[in-house]
Amino acid sequence: INFFSRLILRNYFDIIASAIFAYSIALVFAFFLYRKLVFPFSVTSFKTQSIRFLLIQLSCMPIVILIFSVLSTIMYKTGMGIYSEPVAHAISIGTPALITFLFYKLYVFYK
């Protein structure tokens, strides 16, 4: 969702704004998917899960945006052209996936 929504939003916003909006949209979807499919037996309250999930995601957002911004610039300058943003975005959203999964498992959705 993050990747495809950024592609659509990029038509209306600059590179950083489109990445931030896409990250925010994906954050909402990710919370409900994690809650329903990955950690359905958690006894932690919805409110606590929401707050913890948001804190982890907001702490990762600057990292993702920084990686995306730097990589897309480097890739564009090295001749990747129109592929620089999508490739940089794919790498940047994949980077914190393992770290956040462990935080979710051990802190947000633990049972």
What's the Cα radius of gyration? 15 Å
Tally of helical runs: 5
Outline: elongated
Distance between the termini: 28 Å
SS-derived structural category:
mainly alpha
Strand residue content: under 5%
Helix content: over 70%
Largest sheet: none
SS elements, strand count:
0
List unreliable stretches of 5+ residues: none
Taking all residues together, what is the mean pLDDT? 90
Order of helices and strands: HHHHH
Question: Overview of this structure, please?
Answer:
- This protein is an all-alpha fold.
- The protein contains five helices and no strands.
- The protein has helices spanning 2-9, 15-38, 46-80, 84-94, 97-108.
- Helix 3 (46-80) packs antiparallel against helix 4 (84-94).
- The longest helix is centred in the middle third of the chain and has 35 residues, at 46-80.
- The radius of gyration is 15 Å and the shape is elongated.
- It starts with a helix and ends with a helix.
